[in-house]
Write a structure and sequence with these properties.
single chain; 631 residues; mainly alpha; two-stranded antiparallel ribbon; 62% helix; globular; disordered N terminus
Amino acid sequence: PLPACPAACERAAMVVSPPTSPKGNSGGSMFASGNSSGRAGSLGVYGENDEGYRTATLKQRWEDATKITMSYFQGDIVPITTKSNILRVQKFSVIYSIVMTCLVFGHAFVVPATMSDADAQNYGGFRPGAWQGGVGSYIIMSILMIVPCIRFCMLGSEAQFYEYVLVLGTTEILIYIFVSVWWSHGMPALAVLFISNAINMIVSQLFWKNKFGKSVSAFKEIVRPGDDGNFDYQHVDTTQTSSFPSFNQLMMEWRKIMGFKKTKTLPDMYDERCGVFSLKKGQMSHSKSMTLAYQQAMDPSQQSVPWRHSPGEMHSLSVIGTLDGVLQTFVSNALYALVGLWLGRELCVQWQYGWYAVGAASALAILFGVSVYNAFTWLEDGLCVAVAEKEWLAHDIVAHAGQREGMLYDSLDMTAQQQQWMLGEALPVFAWTAKDLEFMQHGHLNLVTLWLSVAGVACFIGESHLAKLWWNIAHQCKCMVEGSTSFEFRYFYDAKWRVMRCGTVIRSMEILMLSVISTMYFGRYYMSDTWLPVPVLACIGASCFVAGVLKMLEAMQFVFSILANKSTMRSTYVSEWVAAIAMIFVLINLSVWLYMLPIMKSWNLPIGTCHNWFNLEVFPSACDRFYHAAQ
């Protein structure tokens, strides 16, 4: 016979140690309809990244939890994330990020074709003296801007999201029109898109963080009969676990986010319940522990939870935390704008270095496709946080001990086979079945790792402020489960690395591409008799350097949290990943300091000098400016 949990069964995703329970009691085996072990066996053996496994498992878990809760309530328990619409917001934020990226690229692509004048190579520049409006233009702008300004002053703490969308959208569209008509629809209009995108992201993050905080504060503890308290849960849980549901469902979610469709609640819900689980005296309910965990995550400086946790491992949630996300978004927007500008110039004005532009556009298209795939892959998992939340909360209302343990197992993605393996039951080789092998595939769809998926998506699309909040919540949920049960999470930082690894590489590649393409673009078209937009190039260079440093620090955290503590089964992969990020960081610095800076200062190129054939081919205008300055 083999040991109960051989080393081969260790996996890098977050694994849990089960609570002490009666032998043979399977997670979810006491469910009114179906059981965890039964449905797991019907799914066959899937890999941990198999879409069929994730989709089928999470959907079935949500349906089982809903049946259980609605058998005790005339209504239903609605998770905090669903009630606050925060997961719906994350979905539409990903879509918004993709749309803005395409808009920036498309706008930049058509600029060269529509600016054929002598100043076209600078595409309007940023010279304030180019403003063509007079007194009449200022009067028109003042009249049109007065309504959004008044509307903005009237916004209060209870304003719905659509009101902010109307005010910001109207203001940004008007400014874009003013700049395009009286200044230039080239670089100035692109700058308006960049700034508008940054403002929208900051306002959205702060609004929904505040909305989430209100939902956590207003969430009432699930109490037993006779206790003081009222229930205010919705009639129906509208959790959506798919990124692209039906059109009607998508429109319903959009209306909820905007504030057009408000959630309605059932007052005095506990008077209508037909049966509850009576908690032991002194034991904290799951609803109360979850509320405290979320409150602690939103305010790390306060001590809100009774269990042990590490405050140093949580992020500060100051407004300054939005800046790294804004910088990441700027780098991404600048890259797509520059490639679109270059491709449009070659295709619409003059085919001079067209193959370079086509190559850059092709590489960027591949990177864009990988980015979309990565975002929606983790979004599919992140949208299911509400499923694990509901299972955790449902523990407070079920009456049977087996059902309570079943809800707990499901919220941590446990199965009967996994429980038997981890409790030390020997299993001969000839007795292994598909169900037994599922042990290696379970454990990563639990409450904590699903929150890590949400955080990874927010971090990837530049919502750094919300990402820090979601990291904090994932950490507090881990401490909450360990503090209120005998479960023990393992490989927490390894699970975080799995979520972040692709996004960090993609964003690092964007920084590298922006620095390289900037040196090639500004080193080709701006001869000695042409004004070189040094401020633009300096802004791009500084942004690339700072963003590269941040990504390097992001990678280095796993050196201390994973490699130093050996808290992973994939130490080789993590170390090679860190080395790859470090190599990209070195290349970024080479591009910024050894090429971009000399081009700005009209210096000789340090590597190969301007006499080298490669530099003359790739940076002809940079060498021309150097020779002109030397004369």
